[in-house]
Amino acid sequence: MTMVELAVGWLASHLFDRGRAQEAEPAIEEQLRGLAGLVQARLEDDPALQSLQREAESSPTPTVSTRRRVVQALEDAVWTDPHFGEALAATVDRLRPVMPAAQR
């Protein structure tokens, strides 16, 4: 899985797993909030992210097409903004060792 795919998977998990926040270690939850904030700040007006957020409010999982669109939008953001790419990579690197294997 690429860095961007991991980031989108963790973002979706953060948005869709409403009950998990109470169970997660505070440090992990803080890192996931940081990832969500980073992505949301960069893609705030992107229709793909808006769709993901709407789906999180009304369904248990994101659609494959929405998830794919968010991956593409995030890949485009990484490509056009190297500083954002570095920040995303650093966030993914911090999360990678603490996330469950199924979510890596």
Tally of strands: 0
Biggest pleated sheet: none
Order of helices and strands: HHHHHH
**Low-confidence segments:** none
Helix percent reads over 70%
Taking the alpha carbons of the first and last residues, their distance comes to: 8 Å
What does the average pLDDT come to?
Answer: 90
Helix and strand composition category: mainly alpha
Q: In DSSP terms, counting alpha (H) and pi (I) runs of 4 or more, how many helices? A: 6
How many domains, as an integer?
1
Supply Rg. 13 Å
As an assembly, this protein is single chain
Shape: globular
Strand percent estimate: under 5%
Keywords for this entry:
104 residues; mainly alpha; 0% strand
Note the topology:
Blueprint: H1 3-16, H2 20-23, H3 26-43, H4 47-58, H5 64-80, H6 82-95
Helix pairs in contact: 1-3, 1-5, 3-6, 4-5, 5-6
Question: How would you describe this structure to a colleague?
Answer:
This protein has 104 residues and is mainly alpha-helical. It has one domain. The protein is built from six helices and no strands. The protein has helices at residues 3-16, 20-23, 26-43, 47-58, 64-80, 82-95. The protein starts with a helix and ends in a 9-residue tail after the last helix. The mean pLDDT is 90.
